[in-house]
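We modelled the chain as a single entity of 679 amino acids. Its sequence is:
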Amino acid sequence: NRWLYGIFIAIDANFRLARKNVSSDKVDPGLSNGWSYFVEEKGYKTFLNEVGQQPQEKSTCASHDAVNLAETKNSRGLAATGAGTVDCSRHNFKRPCAVGDLQKGEKYVNMDYLFCSTMQYAKDLIVFNVSYDIACQWSKNIQERMLKYPDHIRFNCADKSMTFLVPKFHLPTHISACQITYSHNLIRGMGRTDGEAPERGWANINPVATSTREMGPGARRDTLDDHFGDFNWKKVTNMGVSLLRKLKVAMPERERHQHDFREFNDTLIAERPEEVSQWRIAVEEWEADMSVTNPFGATTATMTQASVRLSLSQKYTTQKEADDLKHGVDHSLHSEISPTVLISTGIAIEEEQNRLKRDISALGAHSTDLQHSKIQDRTNALKHKIEQWSQVQLLYMPSASRIRTTRDSSAGAFEEKAHNINLFLPSELKEHTPDAVCDERLCRFEWELRRGQSFDALDDLRRHLLLRTHLYKFKHINIRGQRANTRASAVIGNVERNVLEAADRYRRARNALKNLHETLGEHDWLEVFPILEQAHIRGMSEGEAGQSEGNRTLSWIWKARGVSATGDVLTDALRIEWCKARARANRWTEEVQLLLEEMRRVREFLSWHAAWWDEQADRRVNLLAAEAEGIKGYARRQAALRRRIQHAFTKMWSGFVVSATTATATATETSTSPMLSPV
């Protein structure tokens, strides 16, 4: 149970705590120089001058401004552009010697010093859980950087168990690989920690930022130290209520998620026992050594229209056409537009036609001249684009020209609207002329692109359905009043239109596949792309009309994935969901254990702190009688205060601690699944 005694650390910076370039340390020295939350200023600046010129590598994750703009933060007229901090991420406490000014942006060297400074008070610990919104970058070469720092500030990570994480709110902005590697929800021993403690601390301190930015350096540090101390003391006095509230939430959640996982696990074991056994081994190996393959990652690649277009460009335009040119064969009939580009551009024009058609149908009976003018401009631009594309199409698809000429002659002088013009892509030719001939290469290009378009449309459809479900729930719970309901309904209406648009796009792409499959000899596509009926377009938690929660069925759109092998995808999705269900059950189990341990720790700390204050009563010697009496009285009062707090917490927690401890022991003894036993 070593994980129970680890320390949870959260790192962050706040650029609201800037300070103008007024006064100086000589004119305005601080009263508590390095004795409280701010680091000792002279040593800090000496360290920055010695090692602060090291270049900072750019981010290899998302374009994190904290990394890429660390050297470019505007500092004109400022002595400090902000402040960095290292907090306790479990209870939001400011740690000792953990706050320091930033001279530019959020540079590694500044945050390294603050981290090392406060870790001098935790050297005896072994397990460190460090949360930082750019942990995926900051943690890369941390040990190498530490070795270059002076001995008095160096923190040796090599003999520690270091786990780096990204706060839960910041994690979605990272790439998918980071989201499964640095997640509090997936990593063993994290409980329900979210890593966002500094953000809550900044919310408390930001109101004084407008005052402290005008202060001298010493007065500002002392003022902020006072506020940090007050914040910490309030946390101490509220620890009884806080921990009890969390325990009351965690206990039923633990039971619920353990029950859900057991049911899911038993069902899968009955159907595929060998696979579940492999998943268990894989996830346990990853929890023991996070350098092995992450079981939460997808192993089947998602196909999109953009990825298909890139693949076709690389496969055909580069390799195939190069081989053909080598043998003296050139299939490209245009100097700038290859067959692949022709088909992909045609599909893009088709999408633009449908967007224009929807916008025209959305115009009301009393639309303004400005609205009509914008529609006309778009119509003219689209028609010009179609005319240019059709000229190139003549080179690759002569039969399309004959069909278009026949239609134009029958239409007479009537001018067809831009959004209704038929493009006669390969999938449309045989619909109009059964004996039409088209190059099979062009048919293959459109087949691949339509598959990608179908997967894209399904992804968009699922995303909009999830958003629609969320908006309806939010409206039901939070929205009151006619004005607010009208605005909410307008937003939901936009989402509904996006749902219909994604469904129409899927149907168009599927219809094109239906027209092409015989020509290309493709016969297994129906399993991958079923017919999309209106009854299938529903949220994940919604059943068909008349179905209750107990017997509802899942629409096929939530079982399909954007890959070619449905069986592989289903297995992949089940594995990931099984791992996540197991992680949810384990995190809530850990949360209960952590809370019980923290309650024990709080009682022990208050007992120790009371004894410490008793010792201070007789520590000062050679004092006047009145002074000695005053010091003793103050120390005894502080000791008595800690004992009263301890007694109040013990009384408050007594019943819940016993029941939670008993339930934890019972769950451990009766659990038949190793995933649900304590880590």
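As a brief sanity check on the tokenised model: Confidence is low (pLDDT under 50) at residues 562-567, 669-679. The longest strand covers residues 94-102.
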